[in-house]
Amino acid sequence: MHILCGKDMGKIMRVLLVEDEIAHCERYKKCVEYLPYKVDLKVSHGLKNALKLIQENTFEVILLDIELNESDGDGFEFLKQLKAMKLKAVPFIFVFTNNRSLTIHDTVRSLGADYIIMKSKPDYSPRTVFDFAKNFILNQPKEDWNKSGLDGIIAKEVEKIGFTYDSTGTDYIVTAVAAVIHAGKKSQSLSKDIYPVIAQKYKKTDWSISKAIRNAIIKTWRITDVETLQQNYTSNIDYDTGIPTNKQMILYLADKIKREYAGYI
């Protein structure tokens, strides 16, 4: 868990919680009292009031229940109206849901959500959400990210290993890892399930996608120091080449991100 100290302690993270479940809101209010850093938390139980608060205040973080069953609108409508406001300072948006539908998840991402938080996750709590937000938002402002949301998480893990974006295959790896994560426990055959997704997005053949990813891995293992590789890639390799296969690399990153960012993707 990220430990906050020094200059982090003096920052105030301004958060808007949009949630119609009173007990859930009370958990967040109570948590703020015991945080080792400062959070200015405002709560709205309805859509209209939330939009009014956004017009009157500046928030770094929005925590949004997508269902809002007891409110004057749902989270989808909130995201649409928020997008139409064209704010100069765009908050990071965390969406709460118990819905595991990939269609729902893709929809909220397309409307601007940065992270999807499953309330049913065993490690979910207001404290983990606040800590996650503090670490990834105030220390790394949204406008400074080359990518956002899940792609941003994947990109940072890829960069830790030593991949660079002058290799086309690096972008393909980010897309492939995201596709594996979205697939959940479904088939994870690269040739049947993953490469076609990337090929469709970039208008390339499956073969060129596979070759570009392979070249990016080979280049990374050639230019990155051994200590960095050993520290940031801790899975299997092809013992004939001493380099991970495409599948080994993609599944390693997907498994690592699902494990370390459980509840936020």
Describe this entry's structure for a reader.
The chain is α/β, with parallel strands linked by helices. It has 2 domains: 7-144, Response regulator (Rossmann fold, 3-Layer(aba) Sandwich); 150-260, Winged helix-like DNA-binding domain superfamily/Winged helix DNA-binding domain (Arc Repressor Mutant, subunit A). It contains 12 helices and 5 strands. It has helices spanning 7-10, 22-33, 47-56, 75-85, 102-110, 126-138, 149-161, 168-183, 190-202, 206-223, 226-232, 246-260; strands at 12-18, 38-44, 61-65, 92-97, 115-118. Strands 2-1-3-4-5 form a 5-stranded parallel beta sheet, with helices on both faces. α8 crosses α12. The chain is elongated. Mean pLDDT is 82; it is low at 1-10 and 141-147.
Task: Produce the secondary structure layout.
Layout: H1 7-10, E1 12-18, H2 22-33, E2 38-44, H3 47-56, E3 61-65, H4 75-85, E4 92-97, H5 102-110, E5 115-118, H6 126-138, H7 149-161, H8 168-183, H9 190-202, H10 206-223, H11 226-232, H12 246-260
Parallel strand pairs: 1-2, 1-3, 3-4, 4-5
- Report the sheet with the most strands, covering strand number, pairing sense and barrel closure: 5 strands, parallel
| Fraction in helix | 40-55%
Give me the number of helical elements. Answer: 12
Which spans of ≥5 residues are poorly predicted at pLDDT below 50?
Answer: 1-10, 141-147
- CATH 2nd-level architecture of the largest domain: 3-Layer(aba) Sandwich
CATH topology of the largest domain: Rossmann fold
